[in-house]
Specification:
The protein is α+β, with helices and mostly antiparallel strands. It has 10 helices and 8 strands. A hairpin with a 2-residue loop joins β1 and β2. α4 packs across α7 and α9 runs antiparallel to α10. The protein is elongated and about 90 Å long.
């Protein structure tokens, strides 16, 4: 079981416990409000308290329905992916959709708390609602496109992509935009509509799962390509269960007056982003160590 799947299962166990606690609270509120108990005269004479309890019942009921649907969906998804890798996009998409539905439940709850009937309220402001829909059209489109990307496997958090002239790693996909982080640390915000309708190059979705690392080496270092390739390949040994070490190779992709740009690439067995991230750190550290040793020499 991969690390992400373990984290998700632990979080789901906590959500299940919270689900039963909220269910017990809902039963208590319904019993106190609907049954002929000593609370009944109090609610008959205190309309505000009655509205608040009714709103609380609606809030808990709606939240429980959404939580139950979320638990069942994720349980089914985890069983379906028992022998494969979990896509973080799907989990994020479920969380974002649950949040959106809960916000709608909260808005209706506020109406009930103030004694406003939601259906009559929406009917009375039809013209205003139409105007709001026109003003928020772009936001609604972005939300829909964001959900489409979350539930698809074409773009995944951690993928290296190119959109227009912007290149970076997908850091997050929200309901409004996509966040890219460049190799130099800058954050690029791209609207979901642009990300879904533009031509996107995904460098992480290749059949061989190649990991590519480029580096510029100045000529004042004693450059022995065979030694450098051996040192970098040796750093991959601790990841032998995930990396095809025999497929690792070092090539020169550009020569400059005072330096060369080399590319170290190797095929990886698993597409798990956490493992790939750790492999990259290890290889980069091996490159730094090799460069320091050659400078001292």
């Amino acid at each position: 079981m991969n690390q992400l799947k373990s984290i998700i299962k632990n979080q789901e166990n906590i959500r299940r416990r919270n689900f039963f606690l909220k269910f017990l609270l809902l039963v208590v509120l319904i019993t106190a409000f609907e049954s002929n108990s000593w609370f009944s005269p109090f609610f008959d004479t205190h309309i505000i308290a009655s509205n608040l309890i009714r709103a609380a019942i609606f809030l808990l009921s709606g939240n429980l329905i959404i939580s139950l649907a979320r638990i069942i969906t994720l349980q089914f998804y985890l069983k379906r992916t028992e022998e494969s890798r979990v896509q973080p996009n799907f989990v994020i998409g479920i969380d974002r959709l649950s949040t959106l539905l809960n916000i709608m439940i909260i808005l209706i709850t506020m109406m009930l708390a103030f004694g406003v009937r939601p259906l009559e309220f929406l009917t009375s402001i039809t013209i205003v609602a139409a105007a709001i829909a026109l003003l928020t059209k772009d936001y609604i489109t972005n939300i829909v496109n964001g959900l489409i990307m979350m539930f698809s496997d074409q773009l995944e958090i951690g993928d290296k992509i190119l959109i227009g002239k912007s290149m970076g790693f997908i850091r997050d996909i929200t309901l409004i935009n996509m966040e890219l982080k460049t190799e130099t640390g800058e954050i690029i915000i791209i609207p979901n509509t642009l990300a879904l309708t533009s031509e996107v190059v995904n460098y992480s979705k290749n059949n061989s799962h190649q990991v590519i690392l480029d580096s510029e080496i100045p000529f004042y270092s004693a450059i022995l390509l065979n030694d450098l390739e051996s040192a970098l390949s040796h750093s991959l040994r601790e990841f032998s269960d995930h990396v095809f070490i025999d497929g690792a190779q070092l090539t020169i992709i550009e020569r400059k007056p005072e330096s060369i740009i080399v590319r170290f690439q190797f095929p990886i067995k698993s597409g798990e982003k956490i493992i790939e991230k750790n492999v990259k750190k290890t290889v980069n550290q091996a490159l730094i160590n090799w460069s320091n040793e050659n400078r001292k020499a």
